[in-house]
Every structure is written in C-alpha cells, then in structure tokens.
Write a structure and sequence with these properties.
By secondary structure, the protein is α/β, with parallel strands linked by helices. It has three domains: 107 residues, Alpha-Beta Plaits; 199 residues, FAD/NAD(P)-binding domain; 106 residues, FAD/NAD(P)-binding domain. Helix content is 28%, strand content 25%. The strands form eight sheets. Strands 6, 7, 8, 13, 14, 15 and 16 form a seven-stranded mixed β-sheet that branches. The N and C termini lie far apart (62 Å).
Amino acid sequence: MTSGLVITAVVLTAVVLYALWERVDRQRESVVRAVVEDLEPLGELTAPSLSPRVDLDACIGSGACVQACPEKIVIGLTAGRARLANPLGCIGHGACEAACPVGAISLVYGTRTRGVELPRLDPHFQTNRDGVYIIGELGGMGLIRNAIEQGRQAAEHVIDGAPDEDGPPRRGRRGAHDAIVVGAGPAGVGATLRMMEAGLDVLLIDREALGGTILHYPRAKVVMTGTLVLPLYGTLRKRIMKKEQLVEVWQDIERKLQPPLVTGELVEGLRLDGDGQWTVVSSAGERRAANVLLALGVRGSPRKLGVAGEEQAKVSYRLLEPAEMDGKHVLVVGGGNSAVETAIALADHGGCSSVTLSYRKGVFARCRGENRERIAQAVDSGQVVARMPSTVEAIGTGDVTLRASESGATERIPNDAVIVQIGGTSPVELLRSFGVEIVTKYGER
C-alpha cells in the first residue's frame, strides 16, 4: 500500500513538473515567434557581422545556445529546434556555437541568398595590397576582445613577416613610418600597442580620440568584453564593463603608455609610391609608411536626413552626455540600437523637458532584446514619446515637423535639439578606391 502511494506521488510529481516545463517552453516559444513576426515586414535580414547558422538535422533542441547568447532573443527555440530569430541583434559573439553540445551551429557571414560585402583578407588580415591590413569591424569582427586580438595578430605579421614569404618584413624608408594605424578603436589600439612593444615606428590616426566608437555609446551602456589582453598594458579580467569603465581604461593607456596618437584627421586616400612605401592622405596632409592597418569601423560618416533645417547647430549625430540636454525638448531619430540607447539614456537621466523618438518603422526591429524591453518600458511609463512610424519633414528653430507614415498627417512639436542616428555611409567604396578587393559572403564561414 505504501509502495503504491509512493509510486503514485512520484508519477503525479513528474506529471506536474512536465506540465510546468511545457508551459514555460510554450511561453518562451511565443516570445521568439513574436520577435520573428515583428521582423517579417522587413524581409530577409542579415546580421552586420558573424551570425549563427543552425543545422536543423543535427539540432537536438537543448537550448544551450539560447542560454549562452549574451544578447538574448537573437537565437531561440521553435518546434524543438534552434533558429536565428533576430539577425540584427547579433554581435558575432560566438557563444552559441561553443555552447551547442552536438556542433549544430556554425558562424557565417550573410545568408545563402543575401550577402555581406567584406574585404578579402589572408590569414594575417592582409588585403590583396601588400602591407595594407584591415582589422576589427571593417573586416567583419565587431566584438571588442576579438577586435583587439585581430589587431595584435596583424601587428605580429607586420613585426615578423610570415615564414612562407621571401625577404625581410616591410619597414619604413627615407623618413617613412614602419606602420600607420588608422582608427583608434579596440583593433587599432591593440595593433599599435603590440608594435610599440616591438619597438617599431608606428603612428595612430583618428578623427576623434582614443576609444573609437565606444566613445559614442550612451552613458552606462554595458559592453560585453570578456577578458581583454592588451599588449604593454596587461590583462583585464572583468567580464562585463560599462562604457565609463572601458573609457577609463583607454584614458589610462593614453596616460601611462602615451601611444603616438594624432587626432582630428579624416583619412581620404591611400596610394603606393614608386619605392614601395604607402602614402596615407588625410584631411591634414600626407604621411608615408611601409604598412597601413585600417581599423576604421563599419559606421563610416553619419547618414543625414536631407531635410530643411538640418544644418542648424542644434542637430547632432551622437550623444556624449545626457546632461547636455537638460531642460530641452529632444527628438531622437532612428530605431536601431544607437537611437534607442540614446533615448533610454536621456529618459534615465531625467533632465530633459521631453524625449521624443521618431522612427520610420512601426516596431523596433533593429534592436537587441534588452533594448527592445527597456524602450517599451520607457514608452509605457511616458518617459519617451514614440512617434512610429513617422519621418522628419522639416527642422525649425524651435520646433520639428513630423509626418505620420500611415496617415500622412503632419505634426509640429516643440524642439530644442535633434539627435539623428540612422546609421552611416559604408566605407566599402573607400576601400575600393584604395584598390582593396571586396568579396560578397553568402552564408560562408
């Protein structure tokens, strides 16, 4: 009798646990399907960097990839199999591939039908132009620690050359630098520090300051860094760092190591001279080097709205500190991660008279999961006013005119500042002008 009761209790417990598990599983799947449905109106999408491709025949639906993804709601389970739900939120972390217990995930660029344009690089990150390297985001690798490592590896090739190559490594002659690094983001910093460590004559050029696009991140943004190994500087073992913490690292590097940094210059051209040296043409003049490492990033120049009034001083293309906007009616334009994070930062700061977000789509399809949740909360609480879908019609001195995409109706709202974050022009054409070969990747590793 006792045995029967025990068996019955065990069976009932198992049934209840299974029912609870199935319910949670259904809820998770409904979230994934909702994300997929939100993105469907945009057609086939590709991730800006590496993204997972799932072999459905091999996938066992363990969910390990979902748990490993730091961005969440990028990859999810539907019908017991993993799928890439939001390609636009993927940052090429690679944690999903490593977590899969059966090797069903591979990291690829683009899809079989929609390609991603990237420079053709050899294993040392050198282009088809001898002595010209591409590292970091521009080469398809956006994750900070990977970009730093890419920069270090490219620098190693500059320092030592390759065993299978004839002749000594390329070095500057007749006053030329051994290397010029263009772009002071993670990849550029990693490369510069390694070449400094090796005693090379290296120059680092950036149009802004040490840190690159990290300086454009909104205040308190969390950066998934993992362990960072920086030549000359040391190893940082914090897995998660906020923007301010990482900026402090760059400032400490600049203070202690004094990298040869030149700012305020935009690189516009590159040509090979008769003596085999490269001339880097910038907005400030020309400099020569035996090697050029391009760590430009993928953003390029900020894309503009092209509307009347955009030339006013109140229009900017990034937010450095929310306090700059205290007491102002602010309009943020865009629906990607940058725009949404800017609106969230302003809302969290709480000093603006109002924060309005204008986006031409009806959903925040181009955002990571965490950002989608946070902006939804900010809109629901009234901290941010969402005008979606809408476009900017004109920018006045004290107002902005928005046009509702569906009805065509216009609305004038008070405005003291406009922050436009709708992406940037691709640097691919600049690379082509340098003679760098560009290839299109269709779902390739």
